[in-house]
Specification:
Elements lengths: L1 H15 L9 H48 L6 H17 L2 H15 L2 H22 L7 E2 L5 E2 L6 H13 L3 H25 L8 H23 L7
Antiparallel strand pairs: 1-2
Helix pairs in contact: 1-2, 2-8, 3-4, 3-8, 4-5, 5-6, 5-7, 5-8, 6-7, 7-8
C-alpha cells in the first residue's frame, strides 16, 4: 500500500507542477491552458483510480480481519491474536485511567449475557471507552483547529471523534495508514452513535450478536493502533 501512496503523492506533485501561464503571450496561454487541462484531466482520473484502490484494500482488510476473528470467536473460542491484543490494550488503558476497567468489564459482561439489549449496551459502553480515551489524549477545547490532513475540526466535549482524529493526524501526519485508521474509527463511531441516538429517544435498536462482536473486535484493533502511534515519536512507514 505504500507503493500506491507514493504513486498518489507523485500524481499530486505532477498536478502542482503544471505549467504556470503567468506572463505568457495570449496565444501561448491558450495552447498551454489546453495542454494543462488535458494533463489535469488525466492526472485527476489516475488520482481517483488509486484512491478507489486504497478504499477497496481498506474494505477488504477490515472484512478479512472481522471474518477471521468472527470464525474464531464463535463457540466461545478467541484467537490468540485477539486475546493478546486485547490484554495489551486493556493494560495500556488502565495505566491511562482506571475507569476504563469498569467499561471493559461491562462490555465483557454484556457479550456473555448475549441478549439483544445487552448487545446494544455493549455498543454504548464502547462509546464510553472512546469518549474517555478522547478525554485522556485531547481534552475538550473551545476553538476549532485545522489538522494536518487539511480538515478543520471542532474539539468540543461531544466531538470525541474529532478529538481522536486531531491527535492521530498531529502525531502521525497525513499518510494512507493514518487515513485508513481514521476511517475505521469513523465507521465504528457512526454505528455506535446511531445506537446512542435511538437509545436517547427510548427506542431499542436491534443489535445482532455478529454486529456486536464486530464492533468489539474493531474497537480493540483501532485502539491498539492508536495507542501504539501515541507511544512512538514517529509513525514507522517504511
Amino acid at each position: 500500500i505504500y507503493d500506491i501512496e507514493d504513486r498518489i503523492q507523485t500524481i499530486e506533485n505532477h498536478r502542482k507542477s503544471l505549467v504556470n501561464t503567468k506572463g505568457m503571450h495570449t496565444l501561448d496561454v491558450y495552447y498551454t491552458e489546453q495542454n494543462n487541462a488535458a494533463n489535469r484531466m488525466f492526472l485527476n482520473l489516475q488520482y481517483e483510480q488509486f484512491q478507489n484502490i486504497v478504499k477497496r484494500i481498506r474494505d477488504r482488510v477490515i472484512d478479512y480481519l472481522i471474518e477471521t476473528e468472527m470464525q474464531l470467536m464463535q463457540g466461545n473460542t478467541l484467537s490468540r491474536y485477539f486475546e493478546n491484543n486485547k490484554e495489551w490494550v486493556v493494560n495500556k488503558l488502565e495505566n491511562i485511567d482506571t475507569n476504563f476497567n469498569d467499561y471493559i468489564k461491562a462490555i465483557d459482561s454484556h457479550m456473555i449475557k448475549g441478549t439483544p439489549i445487552d448487545y446494544e449496551e455493549a455498543l454504548l459502553d464502547i462509546r464510553k471507552v472512546l469518549m474517555l480515551y478522547a478525554n485522556a489524549i485531547c481534552p475538550p477545547q473551545a476553538d476549532p483547529v485545522t489538522c494536518s490532513d487539511g480538515k478543520r475540526r471542532v474539539l468540543t466535549e461531544d466531538k470525541y471523534l474529532n478529538r481522536i482524529s486531531f491527535v492521530l493526524f498531529e502525531k502521525a501526519g497525513k499518510h494512507t495508514h493514518t487515513e485508513l485508521l481514521n476511517q475505521s474509527v469513523e465507521d465504528l463511531v457512526k454505528r455506535i452513535e446511531k445506537v446512542n441516538e435511538l437509545s436517547n429517544k427510548g427506542i431499542h435498536n436491534k443489535v445482532t450478536e455478529q454486529e456486536a462482536n464486530q464492533c468489539v473486535i474493531i474497537m480493540y484493533i483501532v485502539l491498539g493502533d492508536l495507542i501504539r502511534i501515541g507511544d512512538e515519536e514517529v509513525l514507522p512507514l517504511s
